[in-house]
Amino acid sequence: IACVLSGLPESIIAAACARSGQRVLHVDSRNYYGGNWASFSFSGLLSWIKENQEKTDINDDCEDWRKLILENEEVISLSKKVKTIQHVEDFCFVDQDSAEDVEEAGALPKLPGFGASGAEGVAQESEKECPPAECAFQEAESLEPEKATGAEPARAMEGKDTEVTSENESSQSTASGESTLQLGKTEAAPSEISAQEPKKITYSQIVREGRRFNIDLVSKLLYSRGLLIDLLIKSNVSRYAEFKNATRILAFRGGKVEQVPCSRADVFNSRQLTMVEKRMLMKFLTFCLDYEQHPDEYQDYENSTFAQFLSTRKLTPSLQHFILHSIAMVSETDCNALEGLQATKKFLQCLGRYGNTPFLFPLYGQGEIPQCFCRLCAVFGGIYCLRHSVQCLVVDKESGRCKAVVDHFGQRISADYFIVEDSYLSESVCTNVSYRQISRAVLITDQSVLNTDSEQQVSILTVPPVDLGKPAVCVIELCSSTMTCMKDTYLVHLTCPSTKTAREDLEPVVQKLFNLNTEKETENEELEKPRVLWAVYFNMRDSSGIDKNSYDGLPSNVYVCSGPDPALGNDCAVKQAEAIFQEMFPAEEFCPPPPNPEDIIYDEDEIAPEETGLSNSPQTKPESSSEESSSRSSTAVQKEDKE
After folding, report:
1. For a Cys staple, 133 with which of 1, 27, 43, 185, CB 3.0–4.6 Å?
2. Is 310 helix (H, G, I), strand (E, B) or coil?
3. Beta bridge partners of 419
4. Environment class of residue 405 by beta-carbon count within 10 Å: exposed (0-12), middle (13-18) or buried (19+)?
5. Strand, coil or helix: what is 287?
6. Cβ contact 543:435 at 8 Å
7. Pairwise CA distance, residues 532 & 509, whole Å
């Protein structure tokens, strides 16, 4: 298997193939993992911005590789420069004069990378500075977490060593050796007065503490019962990462940000809702959990929007707003009643598994997830090469199948299957493809959009559009305990489907929530808003949902993966990876659980010489087949990784 680029779908496929015994070569022309799914330090992001603002094309005058092409072969050239990012604009709202000669302080290592040596890189662990303690969580009852545990829901940010286990999952986990997700435990933040003036942050401080930042190119959360969480646990990849549960769901209504009650405990403890509204909300949420059993309640509204359906359910305007924008998180105009009910049910089913909200966030950023699957691939023999571009695909004219790739060194590499990210395909292959765009903004701010006693909050906020037909904007605010920003700052991600440039789409929302003026220009009415210290806007290509037949002239054994999609979760990437894997190997299980090292049985004849320090001579040592050798090597790597 030859994989080009190390985005999330490609990394999952590579891990699944290596786990099933295939030989995998994973190359990427970039010098970092993840592609458009990557995370950067502050200086790394500045370099990425500069690279994407430059319009220079890469010219390849070397034609030596064409000598490797035979008469009965043809080539499909790949793109020399990735063109998935457009309209990059960055702004600084603090004084930069004192930051000219400032350099980043000591490193804050992320997940160890891999070189071309495959599994060898896995052993080179680097300790993370100030690592959070680990706290294992297992599944609890949905919607009523307080009833499942006999106390309030366990939260990673509260600093409690709590293990929540349901009877069914406990027995299954014990029987199968299934891993639990590791939720990072952070110290409880001291109580602070919400009106306390935020500390002054300078640009030189941001640059100096640049390695404290892990800034995602794509902003997503993990549904606690989503496909990615299930895959992480099933494949045991979850042991390579830590997670923090989102602590609150917010809503923007009447020009103010307020917290949304979503679980039963939140609803009955809420001071925003009257007793009548609490009963209305609980009655509707209970209906959504088993709406399929009551088709007469919604079948007359299948052609209506979800917003129109809500208006018939005897819900107050504030409840309709909460359900539409903060629970179902769907469009007011483009989502029908059935889709809205499905989204609401998914939200409710995810409550209570790992915390009081349905969402988890990986510590050190979303870019950790592709690297975790790359590590699994390397453990089972996958070979990784960064800064290694591919010139073309070599196609046999008679069979129409791809036989090999030619890299930038002029080497010809043969394989049976080829996985290519959409951005690597040339314009001649994508003539019939129509791409959408995603508008993104990343802000560094000095305080939260909604101050509370605890400053360590992970919040998600949906800002409804001002004009009908425009998309809603998803806002994710991350605190320093997520290991994505420096202390006393917040990292804010804004995402929506594009209608214009990213700045035109998102700056009106930024102006509603934040103060964009410099400290000297700030007026009295802007003092209550968090101040933006630094911001970047960019548009990212959305290639999700494009059928393979839309690409011209691709061989049947070349599979195309899409880049990030605008959805909040990662289900699209997981579905795509599993579909491609099953098409290649229909008889193989997708990412099966790794074997338990205690169950591995070694042949006494093989381990006896190792114990005595003796080895067979060349004359007496029997030659083993390549399959036997590969099997023993794989077993040894598994044992080494477990240890």
Report:
1. 185
2. helix
3. 3, 559
4. buried
5. helix
6. yes
7. 13
Confidence at residue 401, expressed as pLDDT on a 0 to 100 scale: 94
| Contact between 557 and 402 (Cβ < 8 Å) | yes
Domains of the chain, by residue range, sit at 2-83+364-431+544-584, 253-361
Contact 29, 409 (CB under 8 A): no
pTM for this structure? 0.80
- Is pLDDT above 50 for 132? no
Measure the CA dihedral 417/376/483/536, to 10°.
-10
The answer to whether 439 and 497 are in contact (CB under 8 A) is yes
DSSP 315-367: --HHHHHIIIIIIS---TTT-BHHHHHHHHHHHHHHTTSSSSSSEEEETT-TT
Provide the pLDDT for residue 204: 93
Q: Kindly state the tokens that stand for 271.
A: 């001071």
What does the alpha-carbon distance between residue 225 and residue 64 come to, in Å, rounded to a whole number?
Answer: 51
User: In a 3-state reduction of DSSP, which class is residue 583?
Assistant: helix
More confident residue, 606 or 477: 477
Angle of the 368-379 helix axis to the 227-235 helix axis, nearest 10: 30
In this model, does residue 177 exceed pLDDT 80?
A: no
DSSP assignment of 158-183: GT-------HHHHHHHHHHTPPPEEE
| Cα–Cα distance for residue pair 207/101, rounded to 1 Å | 10
Please spell the DSSP secondary structure of 475-534, one letter per residue. Answer: EEEE-GGGTSS-TT-EEEEEEEE-SS-HHHHHHHHHHHHSB-S-TTT--GGGTTSPBEEE
- 9-32: burial string, b at 16+ Cβ within 10 Å, e else: bbbbbbbbbbbbebebbbbbbbeb
177: left (phi over 0), alpha (psi -120 to 50) or beta: left
DSSP state of 425: B
Q: What is the DSSP letter of 566?
A: S
The CATH code belonging to domain 253-361 is: 1.10.405.10
Residue (of 435, 406, 381) closest to 114 by Cα position: 381
Distance from the first to the final alpha carbon of the chain: 28
Task: Name the pairing type of β-strands 215-216 and 412-414.
Answer: unpaired
- Angle between helix axes 571-584 and 227-235 (nearest 10 degrees) is 60
- Rounded to whole angstroms, the Cα distance separating 308 from 301 reads 8
Dist. CA 572–CA 544, nearest whole Å: 8
Residue 413: predicted pLDDT: 93
Q: Please, what CATH class does the domain formed by 2-83+364-431+544-584 belong to?
A: alpha beta
* Banded pLDDT at 475 (limits 50, 70, 90): very high
Question: Which residue has tokens 């099953």?
Answer: 582
